[in-house]
Amino acid sequence: MSHSAVIPAAGESSKFEFLERGEHHVANGTLLGFWLYLMSDCLVFAALFATYGVLSQNFAGGPTGADLFDLPLVAINTSFLLFSSITYGFAMLQMQQKKLKGTMIWLAITGVLGSAFLGLELYEFYHLIHQGAGPQRSAFLSSFFTLVGTHGLHVSFGIIWLVTLLVQLKKHGLTTANRRRLFCLSMFWHFLDVVWIGVFTIVYLMGSMS
Amino acid sequence: MSEHHLHSSEHHEEEGPHSSFSGYMIGFMASVILTAIPFWLVMADVLSSRNATVIVILGFALVQILVHMIFFLHMNFHSEGGWNMLSLIFTVVLLFITLAGSLWVMYHMNVNMMPGMMGSS
């Protein structure tokens, strides 16, 4: 805060405090508002999970999850996302210590891991479609591609956001606004990891057993 | 009173939750274990009963989601004056209604639409 350096006259101190607190309400409002967005996003995924749950056995004579899913590949993908979560955590720790370079380095590593996750998922999709197990093959595959694809789309937007934030950090440093953005992206990123826990358990692990 | 106030406003200066290295490491280690065990259970086909495996891996997923919520998303009862937790609880209720309701209704509809049952009635 630039005006925190200004020492107010005794009579004005309450006014300054009011102004400052007003500003903080806006900042905190952003984090709470973003959390509410994540909760509504959670409901989008709930609907997609419910759809998948209802349609997951409707194979229309086509391939089942056990025929299609490559669990070692999913395990590698899961570890990419898990590692990206902890590297984002390290970026946040560097930010707390006001180290711009460290924050940017860990953020970049997070972006690379996220891109690796996305690349592997696109490879899996390509492979499935190439085998004739595209989204139009059966209700099971339609719901599978919708659910996993929506998660992948979220990760893609997360990476775009991350790159944008890297440019912002490079330009303006760890300003209050940028720190707030880092907090929001942190919530978004960890939230996507939470959704992925549901995806790999319900879609991949349970699908491979049938 | 005023000192407390000053402290809280200073805390808000560093907006968002304060995280620690040990917190992230505990969360990460727990997540690795909680991910590895379900994969091992399914890939090595450890449990003979399919239902038992499903229940166990769903349990692991639930615990891991809680670990992520606490150690990565820093959820607690007092952040944002409790509104974070309240909105989360509300979402979980809606989540449960959506998932359980859809599965329940659609399962029964499937059962009632079975061609065999239609013939027998």
Quick overview of this protein structure:
Chain B: It is found in: Cell membrane. By secondary structure, chain A is mainly α.
CATH 4th-level superfamily of chain A = Cytochrome c oxidase, subunit III, four-helix bundle
What's the Cα radius of gyration of chain A? 22 Å
Q: Just give the CATH class of chain A.
A: Mainly Alpha
Oligomerization state? heterodimer
Q: What is the end-to-end distance of chain B?
A: 76 Å
Radius of gyration of chain B: 22 Å
Distance between the termini of chain A: 58 Å
Helix/strand-derived class of chain B? mainly alpha
Residues in helices of chain A, as a percent range: over 70%
- Overall average residue pLDDT of chain A: 89
Rounded average pLDDT of chain B: 83
Poorly predicted regions of chain B are: 1-13
How helical, in percent, are the residues of chain B?
A: over 70%
Could you spell the SSE succession of chain A in H and E letters?
HHHHHH
Descriptive keywords:
heterodimer; A: 210 residues; mainly alpha; Four Helix Bundle (Hemerythrin (Met), subunit A); 6 helices; 0% strand; elongated; B: 121 residues; 78% helix; disordered N terminus
Could you outline the blueprint of secondary structure elements for this entry?
The complex is a heterodimer of chains A (210) and B (121).
Chain A: H1 13-55, H2 65-68, H3 71-96, H4 100-130, H5 139-172, H6 176-209
Helix pairs in contact in A: 1-5, 1-6, 3-4, 3-6, 4-5, 5-6
Chain B: H1 2-13, H2 21-43, H3 50-72, H4 83-112, H5 115-120
Helix pairs in contact in B: 2-3
Main location (chain B): membrane
Subunit structure (chain B): Heterooctamer of two A chains, two B chains, two C chains and two D chains.
Family (chain B): Belongs to the cytochrome c oxidase bacterial subunit 4 family.
Structure explained in plain terms:
Chain B: GO terms for molecular function: cytochrome bo3 ubiquinol oxidase activity; proton transmembrane transporter activity. Chain B: This is Cytochrome bo(3) ubiquinol oxidase subunit 4. Chain B: Pfam families: COX4_pro. With 210 residues, chain A is an all-alpha fold. Chain A has a single domain (41-50, 66-209), classed as Cytochrome c oxidase, subunit III, four-helix bundle (Four Helix Bundle (Hemerythrin (Met), subunit A), Up-down Bundle). Chain A is 82% helix and 0% strand. Chain A is built from 6 helices and no strands. Chain A has helices at 13-55, 65-68, 71-96, 100-130, 139-172, 176-209. With 121 residues, chain B is mostly helical. Chain B has 2 domains: 21-79; 80-113. Helices cover 78% and strands 0% of the residues of chain B. Mean pLDDT of chain B is 83; it is low at 1-13. Chains A and B meet through helix 1, helix 3 and helix 6 of A and helix 1, helix 2, helix 3 and helix 4 of B.
